[in-house]
Design a protein that fits this description.
The chain is built from two helices and 32 strands. The chain is mainly beta and 445 residues long.
């Protein structure tokens, strides 16, 4: 059941709310006279338009909420910038208090403002400003300025709604106006008698725009032109798997496409696995197959004092990066920091290091953890096992390594974006081999 807020944009007032259950109500009305028949037809047409997302009555949704966050200013006369959900607001008043306090003491017809320094891109249709208490302060007027420029020199609209404490003040966009990519300024003209600070509580502001109707999306599988359409918006589709052949293994699907040889890259495509998938637009997906090139394994040993660098050492295609690697006796990963181990070709399958201390004592291997694979320790030795091109070892307390050994699997993985017969790939994204050695007899785009 969908709900719609009904607005009279001439008066700017919210009239009532309807739901799609009204469709069945009005469709069951009897036709007893021509006037009633016409009335029923008009109601049904308007409801169907609303249900279809045509926004006849201005179906709206909140696209941004200005929820006060603590700023740097605790003075009622000063101001400061506060960033809230990527929009920067300047607040004249005590922004360290939540809700913000707008006011001061011994004031006579003084303006206090909250205004945006970042444009809101949506074409806003309505603003709701929610106020809290306003005791012993006179709000002479409230003004809302909407402008296409940040200095508010050429306003699109200058509106003067009636201020109300402990209530919501609603400001509707006038008919025919465009509030897209606009800046907003809310000005309070206030008077305060006496030498103590009095204020209005600025609780929050909500910005609305016309709701975008949700629609189901369609996925086109480019190897056989099969189309998969969501049963309803956001319900997702099920991506099928494909059979491999002749050493090729199906890896999944990708949005990427290698258009020509000059765009080949050494970066593997982003893989979407077979199974449940929720698209965010109509998409074309290409099947991806992998083939393992080469083989074997190698062990690379790093020795402090011999294999040295400021914070990084590369040896035999393996790169280690830590806090310090130039100490003659040990490599260091400081507490709350991490070391990264990566290989240019293939994967790291094992890491072993010996520490100056044992267990979880300072400098020992028990202070380490890994982002992937399996990490363990025994005595003064830390061990990692898995299969990854890059491994990050994090430390809760300083680790000092007197010896480090890394085992890598040989070869590299080649990714193919293919047509139905995966043995005849249309395009290749290769990890490490010389691209010029690719079989020129295969049709590559």
């Amino acid at each position: 059941m969908r709900k719609f807020n009904l607005f009279n944009h001439s008066s700017g007032q919210e009239e009532r709310q309807i739901t799609t259950s009204c469709l069945s109500l009005y469709s069951d009305l009897p036709l007893t006279c021509p006037l009633q028949s016409l009335h029923k037809m008009l109601i049904l047409c308007m409801l169907l338009f609303a249900f279809g997302g045509m926004n006849v009555w201005g179906a709206e949704e909140v696209i941004y909420t200005l929820e006060p966050a603590s700023g740097s200013n605790n003075s009622y006369t000063g101001n400061c910038d506060v960033e809230i959900d990527d929009i920067t607001w300047n607040v004249s008043g005590n922004s360290q208090q939540i809700p913000w306090r707008i006011g001061g003491k011994s004031l006579s017809n003084v303006d206090r403002a909250v205004y945006s320094k970042t444009a809101i891109s949506d074409n806003v249709t309505k603003i709701e400003v929610i106020h809290g208490a306003a005791s012993n302060i006179n709000v002479n007027s409230m003004t809302v300025i909407v402008s296409k420029n940040s200095n508010f020199s050429s306003p699109v609209n200058t509106l003067t709604p009636s201020f109300a404490a402990n209530k919501t003040v609603t400001i509707n966009r006038p008919d025919g106006k465009d509030w897209s990519n606009c800046y907003y300024k809310i000005v309070y003209n206030v008077t305060v008698s006496g030498s103590s600070n009095k204020f209005v509580e600025f609780t929050r502001a909500k910005f609305y725009a016309e709701a975008t109707p949700a629609i189901p999306f369609t996925i086109t599988l480019m190897d056989d032109s099969q189309q998969l359409t969501e049963a309803s918006a956001g319900s997702g589709v099920t991506l099928p798997s494909r059979e491999g052949c002749s050493g090729y293994t199906f890896a999944g699907w990708t949005k990427s496409w290698v258009a020509e040889q000059s765009s080949w890259t050494t970066t593997a495509p982003t893989i979407i696995p077979a199974g449940s998938y929720t698209p965010t637009a109509n998409e074309n997906l290409y099947p991806v197959y992998t083939k393992k090139e080469g083989g074997g394994s190698s062990n690379v040993t790093f020795t402090p004092g011999t294999d040295t660098g400021e914070t990084s050492v590369t040896k035999s295609g393996v790169t280690c990066t830590m806090t310090t690697m130039n100490n003659a006796s040990y490599y260091q990963i400081y507490g709350s920091q991490s070391g990264t181990f990566s290989v240019a070709s293939g994967n790291i399958t094992a890491i072993s290091f010996t520490c100056t201390e044992s267990g979880t004592t300072k400098y020992g291997p028990g202070n380490a953890s890994a982002n992937v694979g399996t990490y363990s320790y025994s005595g003064s030795t830390g061990s990692w096992e898995g299969s990854a091109s890059s491994v990050t070892i994090s430390s809760s307390a300083q680790i000092r390594m007197t010896a480090l050994s890394i085992t890598c699997s040989g070869g590299s993985t080649t990714y193919y974006i293919s047509k139905p017969n995966c043995c005849e790939p249309l395009a290749q994204v290769e990890g490490s081999a010389n691209l010029s050695q690719w079989n020129a007899g295969v049709h590559i785009y």
